[in-house]
Amino acid sequence: MPGRIRSAAGVLLTCAAALPAAGQTYDLRSDWSDSINPNGRWSYREAANPLPKVASWAPGGWTTPQPAWASGQVPAIPHIPAFLRSNGTETFAHDWITGDVMFHTTDSGSGPGLGTANIAWTSPVDGVITISGAVWIGRDIGRTQQWVLRHNAAALAQGIIASGDVYSRANPFTFAAGAAVPAALIDRAVSRGDEIRLEGSPVASPGDFIAADFTVLVCIGLTEQPQSLGTCPSGVIELRAQGAGPGMIAHRWKRETMPGVFVNIVDGPTGTGSVISGAMTGMLRIEPGPGGALSDADDGNYACEVTSACASLMSAVAAVNVTCAADLNCDGLVDFSDYLAFLNLYDAQDPEVDFNQDGLVDFSDYLEFLNLYDSGC
Fold first, then answer.
1. In angstroms, rounded to a whole number, what is the distance separating the alpha carbons of residues 75 and 136?
2. Which domains does the chain have, with CATH numbers?
3. Chain centroid to CA 318: how far?
4. How far apart are CA 30 and CA 66, in angstroms?
5. Residue 209, helix vs strand vs coil
6. Tens of pLDDT along the chain (377 residues)?
7. Are 316 and 302 in contact (CB under 8 A)?
8. Residue 256: half-sphere exposure toward Cβ, Cα within 13 Å
9. Which three-class secondary structure state does DSSP give residue 227?
10. What is the pTM of this model?
């Protein structure tokens, strides 16, 4: 194919450096907000309904009312479920300290007809996460409660906390202890939009306070996946996959050489007219080399493996399609818009359409263009 080089819009596929580890740890207690629900990735809910903010929520036993996410204002019915972080003004006996998060489950007296109290973390990435946390009885007045930790609809861990049991703030009921397979909480694959949800509800008794810790560590994630694209021989291919995780992210671009087999890409001339750069940096770039062009040798499936301090993840696969020289607008297609572009370039005697490379733009170039156009290249 002719080796003319001109500018063309590329598509970025970048494996970027991650944020520090602290920026990828989501902790219910430290992330808590009294003003925004959901707070980033957290939401405090009744069934699927985000609870409204109640500026001064306090049943009996609070010296000073405090903000809460609740179904209503005390003493209105219903006023639970409710989620709050202790301000330390409670005067009744309880097993939490200032700054701890607790929630009150529903019951027939003050939350009639309402759904399960739940705290949901929504994943911002396609990636791998580790879940940790625990629950315990917030106050012991003889009311048995149950809890379930879910990944979307699937139960990951569950348990019962009852009066007189061993679970307390000093010895909480950990998620791992309630999991049939504790390893299911470690290096768990999630898709963007998945929920990790802690639910609490009463067992044959009125609802009451459950205190909770809840942390999600994103070990590795992709906030942006590669997208398939097409371009022309004189175009530039730039592919992107935005990574996130603890520490810095290492990245390695790969190309499929046979079904399901991806081989590392190496920087430098390809030997078919193109040059690769950025195979181990934030951007993979494939462009025409000196006197060369992209070709069907650059076609194929590409992916980026991203690695953090605790896990590795392969991105989605991006299919690259290099069309022929008749794709004058570099959109990956040969269609009527390219015919119109040819006519404009031909009338302007632009060397871009000197298809036979004889130094002239004439009828022979028109015929060559028509052959390429009709064949679809």
1. 26
2. 22-219 (2.60.120), 336-375 (no CATH)
3. 17
4. 17
5. strand
6. 322 222 222 222 333 333 333 338 999 999 999 988 887 789 999 999 999 999 999 877 888 899 999 999 988 889 999 999 999 999 999 999 999 999 999 998 899 999 999 999 999 889 999 999 999 999 999 999 999 999 999 999 999 999 999 999 999 999 999 999 999 999 999 999 999 999 999 998 899 999 999 999 999 988 788 989 888 888 899 998 888 788 888 889 999 999 999 999 999 999 999 999 999 887 899 999 998 889 889 999 999 999 888 888 999 999 998 887 888 888 878 889 999 999 999 999 998 888 888 999 999 999 989 988 887 76
7. no
8. 15
9. coil
10. 0.75
* CA 90 to mean position of chain CA atoms: 39
Query: For residue 52, is the peptide bond before it cis, meaning its omega torsion is within 30 degrees of 0?
Result: no
Give the position of tokens 């996130």.
244
Q: How far is CA 347 from the centre of its chain?
A: 49
Does residue 4 contact residue 352 with C-beta atoms inside 8 Å? Answer: yes
Per DSSP, 124 falls in state: S
Bridge partners (DSSP) listed for residue 133: 214
Determine the length of the chain.
377
The alpha carbons of the chain give a radius of gyration, in whole angstroms, of 30
CA–CA gap between residue 37 and residue 94 (Å, rounded): 26
State how far the Cα of 322 lies from the Cα of 326, in Å rounded to an integer. Answer: 11
Interatomic CA distance for residues 377 and 296, integer angstroms = 10
3-state secondary structure of 346: helix
